[in-house]
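Comment thread on ticket #2218

A.B. wrote:
> Attaching the input chain for the structure job we discussed in standup.
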Amino acid sequence: MHEVTLIVNGVPRQARVPARRLLSDFLRHDLGLTGTHVGCEHGVCGACTVLLDGQPVRACLTFAVSVTGQEVTTVEGLAKDGELSPVQRAFAECHGLQCGFCTPGFLTTVTAFLRENPAPADDEAIEAVAGNLCRCTGYQNIVKSVHRAAELMAEEGP
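C.D. wrote:
> Ran it. Output below, let me know if you need it in another format.
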């Protein structure tokens, strides 16, 4: 067993886990944060994407012990003080989700993408979400959500 100590959604957390415990399982089972979904368990679908020190990573490919001392943001951590983030609001406004299984991965991925590229062109938005799989939407509304989130973030300012 290994001690894992990190910041999750702004809160210091720790737990003792086996060396092979995946970050996705650590978040879901050890910390009770079930918003991170596990789909393919091979890093292909993107449903398990979380932000590690602000960068998107596949939690199903990351060992929990490897993130000790770092900061993880899950979909639960995107909202602040009960207010949805601009990305979350945009996905709701633009119907960028249907069944919701893939949504946490899209939300974290788009959050990181828009920090780097706050005014993306269509092809950039498409490329940004290409690594996340959705079986329901056909991606049109997801891309609209990316653009709407960029608008909302620009309106709010830094």
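A.B. wrote:
> Thanks. Noting for the ticket: The domain at 2-77 is CATH 3.10.20.30 (Ubiquitin-like (UB roll)).
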